[in-house]
Amino acid sequence: MNSQLIIPFAAMFQSARLVAEIAHNGRFDMETATPLLSSLFQFEAESTEAVYGGLDPLSPGFKELEQQLSHADKEQIEIPHMVMAMMQLAKKLGKAETRLQQMRDELVRIEEKLEMYELTHVNTISAIAEIYKQKVSDLSPRIMVKGDPLHLENPDNQSRVRAMLLAGIRSAILWDQLGGSRFQLLFRRKALLELLRNQM
């Protein structure tokens, strides 16, 4: 099994945890979100680690993944379900070359404005969210985010959720490119856990 697999896998869990925090508590940790948002603009990264600016920024994702793999709570399936949906959507996008190219073109346009707006600025996140809305939200499975309506009806939170889902799908595409599969999740959990603990 490719030892690099655990990196985008942890990033998916980091994205999903951020979505859950926004939806249930209205909290958006910009420091945790930054490496995920940044990964959307790493088109020619020299390594898997470089996509996220190293391994340290993914510490929350590694911890979340370790908990899921070693102490899975059958009552807490929201985050694993989100991750599985990200993987399914990544598979579909991998076969939709035109759509992927359009998404990349939009991200390039956003990147050109990053000197004006920071990565976590409301305008940047809104633009990233629009890509998800236009290019991903019509695909199935649709990721149904549950939470407190007070937070989910907030337009800024809606943009944050969509931006984090897009970042999660970007990581799922990388997972797929590295040879990741649902088979490994079902039958090679111990191997994944060993890879994870070697990275932590």
Keywords:
200 residues
**Cα-atom radius of gyration:** 16 Å
What is the helix tally? 11
Distance between the termini: 18 Å
Secondary-structure element series: HHHHHHHHHHH
Note the beta-strand portion.
under 5%
Describe the sheet with the most strands. Answer: none
**Mean pLDDT reading:** 91
Task: Describe it.
With 200 residues, the protein is mainly α. The chain contains 11 helices and no strands. The chain has helices at 6-25, 30-39, 48-51, 59-70, 78-94, 97-111, 122-135, 149-152, 155-177, 182-187, 189-199. The two termini are 18 Å apart. The mean pLDDT is 91.
Quick recap:
With 200 residues, the protein is an all-alpha fold.
Please write out the topology.
Layout: H1 6-25, H2 30-39, H3 48-51, H4 59-70, H5 78-94, H6 97-111, H7 122-135, H8 149-152, H9 155-177, H10 182-187, H11 189-199
Helix pairs in contact: 1-4, 1-5, 1-9, 2-9, 4-11, 5-9, 6-7, 7-9
